[in-house]
């Protein structure tokens, strides 16, 4: 076999060889994209826990709006199948509304809050390197830091002030998939469920001096993210 024929044969074999798509031990994955938090808020009734009306049940419930921000994932692979992943994002902002309470002035938009949801998960990839489609599942723990709570202008006009919400720890679960465009660049889609529980309080001295109401909210959002990733 002459050199030109041998060279052509080696090139043909290289082109025919499948790419190694699977993630390997030591790989670092960085993903970025649009991430949406869609709260499935289920709350207790609104109750007065401080002031002359302490113990009064105002009924009703609290709801929270959705928000979309920039999402970031950082993952480190311990093996071709197992890794650890950190979810981060730019701050989410949600409108908080009350409806159906016995205190008519309380119904409507109470205010807004921001939160950051850092989540640390263990992830498992079941497939080998022959598939460009790499699905995975994961489970971990979330810490939701709630801050910058503000009472809305209409609620302020009705005497509400000092809106606060507690931070939350909870479990997190996810399913997702990478589609490897090359052995380094990927498309990614993921869905998460996070257990977020908070207690919100707000004061209203217009009803009676020293009156504070509280509501327990199971936020429990589904979180959706689509984006691009790169493997180092």
Chart the SSEs and their pairings.
Blueprint: H1 3-16, E1 28-38, E2 42-43, E3 46-50, E4 57-64, E5 67-77, E6 82-89, E7 92-101, E8 108-116, E9 119-124, E10 133-151, H2 153-157, E11 160-165, E12 168-180, E13 185-194, E14 197-204, E15 212-218, E16 222-231
Descriptive notes:
The protein is mainly β and 232 residues long. It has a single domain (21-231), classed as Porin, CATH 2.40.160.20. It is 8% helix and 62% strand. The chain is built from two helices and 16 strands. The protein has an eight-stranded antiparallel barrel. Mean pLDDT is 87; it is low at 5-17.
What characteristics describe this protein?
mainly beta; Porin; 8% helix; elongated
Strand content: over 45%
Can you tell me the overall shape?
elongated
CATH top level label: Mainly Beta
Distance between the termini: 40 Å
CATH fold category name: Porin
User: Taking Cα atoms only, what radius of gyration do you get, to the nearest Å?
Assistant: 25 Å
Low-confidence stretches: 5-17
| Number of helical segments with 4 or more residues | 2
Enumerate the strands of the largest sheet in spatial order, edge to edge or round the barrel. 1-5-6-9-10-12-13-16
Number of domains: 1
Summarize the structure.
With 232 residues, the protein is mainly beta. It is built from two helices and 16 strands. β3 (46-50) and β4 (57-64) form a beta hairpin.
């Amino acid at each position: 076999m002459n050199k030109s024929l041998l060279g052509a044969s080696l090139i043909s074999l290289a082109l025919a060889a499948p790419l190694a798509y699977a993630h390997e031990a030591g790989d670092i994955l960085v993903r970025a994209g649009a991430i949406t938090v869609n709260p499935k808020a289920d709350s207790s009734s609104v109750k007065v826990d401080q002031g002359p009306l302490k113990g009064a049940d105002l009924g009703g419930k609290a709801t929270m709006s959705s928000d979309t921000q920039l999402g970031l994932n950082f993952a480190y692979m311990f093996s071709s199948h197992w890794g650890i992943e950190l979810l981060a994002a730019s701050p989410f902002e949600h409108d908080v509304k009350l409806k159906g309470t016995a205190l008519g002035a309380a119904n409507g938009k109470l205010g807004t809050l921001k939160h950051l949801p850092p989540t640390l998960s263990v992830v498992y990839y079941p497939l080998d390197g022959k598939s460009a489609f790499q699905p995975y599942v994961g489970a971990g723990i979330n810490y939701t830091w709630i801050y910058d709570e503000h009472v809305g202008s209409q609620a302020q006009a009705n005497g509400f002030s000092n809106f606060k919400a507690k931070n939350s720890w909870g479990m997190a679960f996810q399913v997702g998939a990478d589609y490897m465009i090359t052995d380094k660049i990927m498309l990614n889609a993921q869905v998460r469920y996070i257990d977020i529980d908070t207690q919100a309080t707000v004061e209203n001295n217009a009803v009676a001096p020293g009156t504070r109401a509280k509501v327990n909210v199971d936020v429990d959002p589904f979180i959706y993210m689509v984006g691009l990733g790169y493997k180092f």
